[in-house]
Automatic annotation (TrEMBL):
<keyword id="KW-0326">Glycosidase</keyword>
<dbReference type="InterPro" id="IPR036962">
    <property type="entry name" value="Glyco_hydro_3_N_sf"/>
</dbReference>
<feature type="domain" description="Glycoside hydrolase family 3 N-terminal">
    <location>
        <begin position="107"/>
        <end position="410"/>
    </location>
</feature>
<dbReference type="InterPro" id="IPR017853">
    <property type="entry name" value="GH"/>
</dbReference>
<keyword id="KW-0732">Signal</keyword>
<feature type="signal peptide">
    <location>
        <begin position="1"/>
        <end position="23"/>
    </location>
</feature>
<dbReference type="Pfam" id="PF00933">
    <property type="entry name" value="Glyco_hydro_3"/>
</dbReference>
<protein>
    <recommendedName>
        <fullName>beta-N-acetylhexosaminidase</fullName>
        <ecNumber>3.2.1.52</ecNumber>
    </recommendedName>
</protein>
<comment type="similarity">
    <text>Belongs to the glycosyl hydrolase 3 family.</text>
</comment>
<keyword id="KW-0378">Hydrolase</keyword>
<dbReference type="GO" id="GO:0016787">
    <property type="term" value="F:hydrolase activity"/>
</dbReference>
<feature type="compositionally biased region" description="Low complexity">
    <location>
        <begin position="23"/>
        <end position="35"/>
    </location>
</feature>
<feature type="region of interest" description="Disordered">
    <location>
        <begin position="23"/>
        <end position="74"/>
    </location>
</feature>
<dbReference type="InterPro" id="IPR050226">
    <property type="entry name" value="NagZ_Beta-hexosaminidase"/>
</dbReference>
<dbReference type="InterPro" id="IPR001764">
    <property type="entry name" value="Glyco_hydro_3_N"/>
</dbReference>
């Protein structure tokens, strides 16, 4: 459905509804209306007998629609997104919080999924890629499917393009070194190194936009423990939390500037796990103090830098939610919101991974726990049907599903606005190649 005209102004004139963070039940805190207070009595204690105390009129508090949030969208975009979301049916709401998985390389297949299920979009993997022309045809088909549904905000079209070994557009987009180079650059070259990291993310984002993508599942904020870490390794910026935090923040800044939605991952930190969540549920047995000193520092830095999205990993985090995968644990989402202060879109890691295989009602549990986007369910159509039923039955409350969908819609409005203001230069491939070389020099050359 299309955004109603002047919705932001209308919503603001009535006072905005501000939604609280999700609690341990997975639902939102009660909403409060900004600017609904009445006048207060005069504080003048010297009123003469016979005089009437006058109430001082308090001006109604309003929110500037152009005021940016900590994670990207403006207050006006949030208000406008809410007006769009409240008109959605259960089927549309379910689709808006799912990023679909699809098989094969035919661009018509993801477009059909988006059209049939009202999906927010899809994730493109290496298995879905043939060549540049086919990638462009895929992103165009998905974008058109969202537009044909009446939504005038962009599709979520994401890809893992971290650099190094995790680059699903190999041979199509510029190849950057693994993100370990970012930590090395910051370590050896200070401000120059951070600039190189930011420029690498900035040009990556622009190049992805030129190919039709709106999201990138990067940067990796995990602090690796080294050889005992079988999953993250060189994908991590560093074994040093301080360097990892600086590199992650610089990358988030670069992606923000490019108009591509970045995804800081894998909260609360996969680098300390000694098992692979693609295969099994890893146990993260570090005490809370160690998590704070090591794993959480990059996520705090990313939040401060304006991260629009954070990916929740599939981990058994003993200090926060023992025995429950973090992606479906309300305590993890509450910690992210209340302790780290992140206010943007919380997206699960792929729901088709071995760590969460076989969990009944996995997608519904993630939504109730506090997830805003469900990434790549094992069976997209079946998951959409189950989530739709859960919304219709009230298993996922209206407050929770609307909170999630509003965040996603508002973020896509932000993406469209920034993209319209930041045009992709004609020579972006050459600029990206230069940024990749500069990052390598900053990482491996003497300062």
């Amino acid at each position: 459905m299309r955004r109603p005209g002047a919705l932001a102004a209308a919503a603001l004139s009535l006072g905005l509804l501000v939604t609280g963070c999700s609690g341990t039940t997975g639902t939102t805190d009660e909403t409060t209306t900004v600017g609904s207070g009445s006048g207060t009595p005069s504080a003048d204690a010297t009123t003469e007998p016979g005089e009437q105390s006058r109430e001082l009129e308090q001006p109604e508090e309003t929110v500037d629609p152009d005021q940016p949030t900590s994670w990207g969208p403006t207050e006006g975009e949030l208000a406008e997104a809410r007006e769009v979301v409240v008109q959605m049916s259960p089927e549309e709401l379910a689709g808006q919080v799912i990023v679909g998985r699809y098989a094969g390389t035919d661009p018509a297949e993801p477009a059909r999924l988006v059209s049939d299920l009202h999906l927010s979009g899809v994730c493109v993997t290496g298995d879905n890629v043939v060549d540049e022309a086919q990638v462009r045809a895929t992103t165009a088909a998905v974008s058109q499917a969202v537009a044909d549904s009446g939504r005038d905000f962009p599709a979520v079209i994401g890809v893992d393009q971290e650099g190094g070994t995790v680059s699903h557009l190999r041979g199509i987009a510029t190849e950057f070194p693994a993100f370990r180079a970012a930590g090395e650059a910051v370590d050896g070259n200070g401000r120059r190194g951070k600039t190189a990291v930011r420029d690498a993310a900035y040009t990556t984002g622009l190049e992805l936009r030129e190919l039709g993508f709106t999201w990138v599942y990067a940067p990796v904020a995990d602090v690796t423990i080294g050889a005992a870490d079988p999953t993250i390794g060189s994908r991590s910026p560093s074994t040093d939390p301080r360097l990892a935090a600086k590199a992650t923040a610089a990358a988030v800044d670069g992606f923000d500037r490019s108009g591509t939605v970045s995804t800081t991952k894998h909260y609360p930190g996969h680098g300390g796990a000694t098992a692979d969540s693609h295969l099994t549920l890893p146990a993260l047995d570090a005490p809370a103090e160690e998590l704070e000193k090591r794993d959480l520092k990059p996520f705090r830095a990313a939040t401060k830098a304006g991260a629009p999205s954070v990916m929740i990993g599939h981990l058994d985090v003993e200090a926060l939610a023992p025995g429950t995968p973090s992606s479906i644990a309300p305590e993890i989402y509450e910690h992210l919101r209340e302790e780290v202060g992140f206010e943007g879109v919380a997206i699960t890691d792929s729901l088709g991974m071995g760590a969460v295989a076989g969990i009944p009602d996995l997608a519904v549990k993630a939504l109730v726990a506090g997830a805003d986007l469900l990434l790549m369910p094992a069976d997209t159509r079946r998951t959409h049907a189950r989530v739709t039923k859960a919304i219709s039955d009230g298993e996922v409350t209206p407050e929770r599903i609307e909170e999630a969908a509003v965040r996603v819609v508002a973020l896509q409005m932000w993406q469209a606005r920034v993209a319209s203001e930041k045009k992709v230069p004609d020579d972006i491939s050459a600029r990206a190649a230069e940024a990749a070389r500069a990052l390598e020099v900053a990482a491996y050359a003497a300062p």
